[in-house]
């Protein structure tokens, strides 16, 4: 590891006092988006924070961009090991009681830290408090917010259940504030994951600590061709792996979710995996995936028909 930034105190902290929040940005070849992202953090109304940026082995102008901020940020560099490892590096260096993890291409709203921190300080037992996001380019998927508005209100009023996290991947860490102590307890991100690390982390936090939700929009998601989540095959494989990991590590999850729901969710993931592979000419891979779907839901006529077609 090479450290390039100065070890400054939080932007609004008293000299020698650790900041309340550590904002961590992991980045790889995002020099063109970084200034806008960093600017949205530095312009927060809440000031008692530090900003840590971990460059995960970028080959573009990322280093020059980060060096231009001087002591406004703490800058670390590591050889390319993936986003989960870069985030873990930032968390390791964090001095705040609470950690905010931001992607290097999205934007924080000006009241992002203000709203989340106010709730977290009143509810210190929480491992995570998270909120909603909107789309930088305008409405997507026929809705204005990432979590549909009606569901967002329900989550805030009734609380977050494991089934809410399981049925739809509603947690975006860009909209969350995480307890540093909680992150240390659960071991941070699974560095074997490149896309579904948010879902995996949310599961592990939920099973060990209270989780809360605020019906607020606190970040703007930027959709572009460089999003790592666009690798659909890897996303589905990791999603399946995270589900299997949840059930294996936390037997109580099967009681909370029910074996039928777990089988349905996993089988559907295998079915989508099969469809994608068939579309791109991987007939063998499609056959393997649809067989897995049928093994999980042997009475599904749709999956059995696709198996006849593809196998």
Task: Provide a compact summary of the structure.
It is built from 13 helices and 9 strands.
Task: Give a structural overview.
The protein is an alpha/beta fold and 311 residues long. The protein folds into two domains: 225 residues, Alpha-Beta Complex (Spore Coat Polysaccharide Biosynthesis Protein SpsA, Chain A), CATH 3.90.550.10; 81 residues, Serine Threonine Protein Phosphatase 5, Tetratricopeptide repeat. It is built from 13 helices and nine strands. It has a nine-stranded mixed β-sheet with strand order 1-4-3-2-5-8-7-9-6, sandwiched between helices. The longest helix has 21 residues. About 2% of the residues have low confidence.
Looking at CATH, the homologous superfamily of the largest domain is: Spore Coat Polysaccharide Biosynthesis Protein SpsA, Chain A
Major β-sheet strand ordering: 1-4-3-2-5-8-7-9-6
Largest sheet: 9 strands, mixed
Number of strands: 9
Q: Name the quaternary structure.
A: single chain
User: Per CATH, what is the topology of the largest domain?
Assistant: Spore Coat Polysaccharide Biosynthesis Protein SpsA, Chain A
Write the layout of secondary structure elements.
Blueprint: E1 2-3, E2 21-27, H1 34-42, E3 49-56, H2 62-67, E4 74-78, H3 83-93, E5 98-103, E6 107-108, H4 112-122, E7 128-135, H5 149-158, H6 162-167, E8 176-179, H7 180-186, H8 197-206, E9 211-221, H9 232-249, H10 252-257, H11 259-279, H12 283-296, H13 301-310
Parallel strand pairs: 2-3, 2-5, 3-4, 7-9
Antiparallel strand pairs: 1-4, 5-8, 6-9, 7-8
Helix pairs in contact: 8-9, 9-11, 11-12, 12-13
